[in-house]
Hints:
By secondary structure, the protein is an alpha/beta fold. It has a nine-stranded mixed β-sheet with strand order 2-1-13-12-14-15-16-17-18, sandwiched between helices.
Amino acid sequence: GDPLLDGCTPWPEEFAARYREAGHWRGETFDRLVRAWARAHPHRTALVHGERRLDRAELERSADRVARRLAGLGLRAGDRVVLQLPNVPEFFTVFFALQRLGAIPVLALPLHRRSEIAHLCRLSQAVAYVVPDVHQGFDHRELAAEVLKECPELRHVLVAGDPGAHLPLDGPGTDELPPAPDDASEVALLLVSGGTTGLPKLIPRTHDDYAYNVRASAELCGLGPDTVYLAALPVAHNFALGCPGVLGALYAGGTAVLTDEPDPDAAFALIARERVTTTALVPPTARMWAAATHWGEADLSSLRLLQVGGARLLPEHAAQVRAAFGPVLQQVFGMAEGLLNYTEPDAPEVVVLHTQGRPLSADDEIRIVDEDDRDVPPGTTGRLLTRGPYTLRGYYRADEHNASAFTADGHYRTGDLVRRTPTGHLVVEGRVKEQINRGGDKVAAAEVEEQLVQHPAVLDTAVVPVPDDLLGERTCAFVVPVPGATAPGRNEAAAFLRERGLAPYKIPDRIETLDALPVTAVGKTDKKALTTLARQLSAEG
Length: 541
Ligand code: J2J
């Protein structure tokens, strides 16, 4: 086929051949899939949102309409489009419209702001940006106007809803579309990484690899035509999109219910109304749901699979969730970069409570190593390296970063510390990457540090995690003031970072002032010492 999108790293041919022979990669594109779904069961419900219901034929027709609209604006195969929509049907009509054109969605999160969006537009050289009008009180049209000023290559802003000064998503288009590109080894979407460095990285996912990710996940999770999947996490995130997520539910012949309200009141009512069978949550939400089961009146008896992942679920919390919902709990340890681990739906209780699951594919290769990349003894904790049929071989346009993020033989350095049990299940014990996991929301310490040090009174700064009962971790920023200046307090720092366009969940929860940052023997900031100090300070209140 044609070469991969410029700036991506292909799998070596011997691996690609193996993945095809094994039947993992089947040459299915997402455009072909959506058409096959519509042809097989045109009147089966595909998407539910509030009072709206779209069947499979309507989903295909809406995607075609948006594809003609976008083609009329000049969009072509290979173009990148930053897609920032919450859990609404338009997310999928635009997603499949782009698949129809062979254009590539860049899946921004709903909480991304000017800093992240402008970066994603520039990095991907996006020609269009798709937004809602107002979502959860935030006007995305104003954000888009600012992004347009910063990104000269961005030609179009399309709004799902009231367009304001921009273009409506609904509108006239071309009558004729060119034939859909049909190369499944091509990039189908770009996912945003949780990040460890200054700015978020993009993860190229091909049709072949992502269709396998979706199909294998749907099979392991036992999805079928009777599946009703509730998307309560943002569908722009890998977990709710394809693990098995909305795409898995559609793949299996089922239905997806979309909501932006994961609180137990709203979600339980939806579960009862739509007879939801499957959903995915981050640990803090799962715990809120578990605490709410006994005072709720909603009928939750349809629920057969409750996936929890994105951050560590402590065994005692897993036990609470299992006690509240029954043996439907599944732990998921996944990453947008690829590798997925699931506890099997029929796994013994001890496995579900104490492990984060087993690799999805027989062709997932796992290594657990020390800091010199030597394998640690079985059962010992070490750094997780992985490669396989749905794990990236390189971030998009990131040669320098790729040199350290991958081993010479193509293993991705996850940055996670894990150990493997005798049954092959992984237990996540910690991480070596400088990332704070705020209840599933990932914060790259370096990204926040690079923004905070722009403050005129900040000489130096370091961001570390502090333990938190609900979120697992929160962020703490240590700041060293410029001599003679007063370091910003928490409110001033928050206002400053918001002004710079940083996503709200990246704004430090605590700020502590120091005269100097502690350094290690080699002169680097001693993050370990700071993490210990942050823990002590937060324990003191
Ligand atoms: C501990 N840490 C976990 C878990 C992810 C399914 C589920 C999650 C994600 C995801 C995903 C964890 N226990 N159960 O994409 O499809 C941390 C690890 C990991 C990082 C990846 C999916 N589950 N993590 O969370 O790309 O540190 O993907 O490397 O957002 O989350 O983050 P992300």
